[in-house]
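Protocol step 4 of 5: obtain the predicted structure for the target chain.
Materials: sequence only (see below). No template structures provided, no constraints applied. The aim of this step is simply to have a reference model before the mutagenesis design in step 5. Sequence pasted as it appears in the construct record:
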Amino acid sequence: MLAQRLSTKVLMYNEEANPDGSPVNNLWQLTTPDWTGRVIMVDPLQRGDYLDLMTEIVLRADEMATAYEAEFGRPITLDEGVENAGQQFIVDLFENDLILVSSTDDVNAAIGLKGQDNPPVGFTSYSDRRDNEDEGWALQVANDVVPANGIIFPAVLAVSTTATHPAAA
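Step 4 output (structure tokens):
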């Protein structure tokens, strides 16, 4: 096994429409009426890396609770059956009409397309910024978001020692 590179799933925004920086500085803002139907991501049931993002949010429940209080000025109240602030964030995000799509290209085009007045934000791969010029996008990572703007994880390759040809390994 070889950790060939690091990959990310981070909150991105359109820097042309937001020249002064990210319109979001706390993940909980994504659950407010201002962002209803304006947050987009790949369906976590189609891509495991987005399920990993949701899992990490749940695992960081204490940080999510602190971020909630920082945003709204009061401790979080959990819905019945919800165990922690990370789970509550996911519930609230979906209830705020989170848009799920099948590919990062769909996310990137929705967020990054130039000429938009009020574009959505969303979770996608930081490395997709490399396509800004070719695709006419203005994607930028929201770096200063609490408790965090996303996740980073190793992309792992495996090389088989039993392949019949070296190129198939």
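Step 4 remarks: The first strand starts at residue 2 and ends at 14. Residues 2-168 form a domain with the D-Maltodextrin-Binding Protein; domain 2 fold (CATH 3.40.190.10).
Proceed to step 5.
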